[in-house]
């Protein structure tokens, strides 16, 4: 099992001082930086695009984990790689040609992930599992921060980890995203997740270092 990584989502950061917010979570013990890109079509909300990432990425040493909640993600892979992405995750539900998109991401020299909405079964990625560096199990319906964790997703994480282990696919990440906090983190880690995205639980806390540490402590 990979060491547990905590990936604060900048969706819940103060956008008026994004660079300072990222520097703070880096000093506070974050492992990855989770970047939520929304287009107002695939999800009913709009955030930001590659130019915003390009402005902040050179100023952080964190691993940049880009979560594309957009239609036609294949049109934007090159832009996000140029902007500083280290991993790009696309939604299975947004890709008619999922295999092609995964290979396009890898051809750009970055890691590739696929996200599954709560209603999408893990069988949707059966034919591409071997090609993936990560599966993102959404533990809320994508589109907004601050939503309640969906408990049924714990079983989905477990099914996925068991399935990957059975295939000998052990160096592969399972990320969970949505409603992750010191209350829910242990449930998903015990089920097999190793990357924990948290937006409101970290950026909504007055002391970000304490918030990250309390998620880590909850895993013991
Ligand atoms: O992808 C996302 C929403 O679609 C966000 O990463 C996620 O919701 C994080 O926010 P919170 O931890 O507040 O639930
Ligand atoms: Co996300």
From TrEMBL:
<feature type="binding site">
    <location>
        <position position="36"/>
    </location>
    <ligand>
        <name>a divalent metal cation</name>
    </ligand>
</feature>
<feature type="binding site">
    <location>
        <position position="177"/>
    </location>
    <ligand>
        <name>a divalent metal cation</name>
    </ligand>
</feature>
<dbReference type="GO" id="GO:0019323">
    <property type="term" value="P:pentose catabolic process"/>
</dbReference>
<feature type="active site" description="Proton acceptor">
    <location>
        <position position="36"/>
    </location>
</feature>
<keyword id="KW-0862">Zinc</keyword>
<feature type="binding site">
    <location>
        <begin position="143"/>
        <end position="146"/>
    </location>
    <ligand>
        <name>substrate</name>
    </ligand>
</feature>
<dbReference type="InterPro" id="IPR000056">
    <property type="entry name" value="Ribul_P_3_epim-like"/>
</dbReference>
<dbReference type="InterPro" id="IPR011060">
    <property type="entry name" value="RibuloseP-bd_barrel"/>
</dbReference>
<dbReference type="InterPro" id="IPR013785">
    <property type="entry name" value="Aldolase_TIM"/>
</dbReference>
<feature type="binding site">
    <location>
        <position position="34"/>
    </location>
    <ligand>
        <name>a divalent metal cation</name>
    </ligand>
</feature>
<feature type="binding site">
    <location>
        <position position="67"/>
    </location>
    <ligand>
        <name>substrate</name>
    </ligand>
</feature>
<keyword id="KW-0479">Metal-binding</keyword>
<comment type="function">
    <text>Catalyzes the reversible epimerization of D-ribulose 5-phosphate to D-xylulose 5-phosphate.</text>
</comment>
<feature type="binding site">
    <location>
        <position position="179"/>
    </location>
    <ligand>
        <name>substrate</name>
    </ligand>
</feature>
<comment type="similarity">
    <text>Belongs to the ribulose-phosphate 3-epimerase family.</text>
</comment>
<keyword id="KW-0119">Carbohydrate metabolism</keyword>
<comment type="pathway">
    <text>Carbohydrate degradation.</text>
</comment>
<dbReference type="InterPro" id="IPR026019">
    <property type="entry name" value="Ribul_P_3_epim"/>
</dbReference>
<dbReference type="GO" id="GO:0004750">
    <property type="term" value="F:D-ribulose-phosphate 3-epimerase activity"/>
</dbReference>
<feature type="binding site">
    <location>
        <position position="67"/>
    </location>
    <ligand>
        <name>a divalent metal cation</name>
    </ligand>
</feature>
<keyword id="KW-0413">Isomerase</keyword>
<feature type="active site" description="Proton donor">
    <location>
        <position position="177"/>
    </location>
</feature>
<keyword id="KW-0464">Manganese</keyword>
<protein>
    <recommendedName>
        <fullName>Ribulose-phosphate 3-epimerase</fullName>
        <ecNumber>5.1.3.1</ecNumber>
    </recommendedName>
</protein>
<feature type="binding site">
    <location>
        <begin position="177"/>
        <end position="179"/>
    </location>
    <ligand>
        <name>substrate</name>
    </ligand>
</feature>
<keyword id="KW-0170">Cobalt</keyword>
<dbReference type="GO" id="GO:0005737">
    <property type="term" value="C:cytoplasm"/>
</dbReference>
<feature type="binding site">
    <location>
        <position position="9"/>
    </location>
    <ligand>
        <name>substrate</name>
    </ligand>
</feature>
<dbReference type="GO" id="GO:0006098">
    <property type="term" value="P:pentose-phosphate shunt"/>
</dbReference>
<dbReference type="Pfam" id="PF00834">
    <property type="entry name" value="Ribul_P_3_epim"/>
</dbReference>
<dbReference type="GO" id="GO:0046872">
    <property type="term" value="F:metal ion binding"/>
</dbReference>
<feature type="binding site">
    <location>
        <begin position="199"/>
        <end position="200"/>
    </location>
    <ligand>
        <name>substrate</name>
    </ligand>
</feature>
């Amino acid at each position: 099992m990979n060491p547990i990584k905590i990936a604060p989502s900048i969706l819940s950061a103060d956008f008026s001082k994004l660079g300072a917010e990222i520097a703070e979570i880096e000093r506070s013990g974050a492992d990855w930086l989770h970047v939520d890109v929304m287009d107002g079509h695939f999800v009913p909300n709009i955030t930001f695009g590659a130019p915003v990432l390009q402005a902040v990425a050179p100023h952080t040493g964190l691993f940049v984990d880009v979560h594309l909640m957009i239609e036609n993600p294949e049109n934007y892979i090159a832009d996000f790689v140029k902007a500083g992405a280290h991993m790009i995750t696309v939604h299975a539900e947004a890709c008619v040609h999922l295999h092609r998109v995964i290979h396009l991401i890898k051809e750009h020299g970055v890691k590739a992930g696929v996200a599954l909405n709560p209603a999408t079964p893990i069988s949707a990625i059966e034919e591409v599992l071997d090609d993936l560096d990560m599966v993102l199990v959404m533990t809320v319906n994508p589109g907004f921060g601050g939503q309640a964790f969906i408990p049924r997703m714990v079983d989905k994480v477990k099914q996925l980890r068991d399935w990957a282990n059975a295939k000998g696919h052990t160096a592969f990440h399972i990320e969970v995203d949505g409603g992750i906090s010191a209350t829910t983190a242990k449930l998903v880690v015990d089920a097999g997740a190793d990357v924990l995205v948290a937006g409101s639980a970290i950026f909504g806390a007055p002391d970000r270092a304490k918030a990250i540490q309390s998620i880590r402590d909850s895993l013991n």
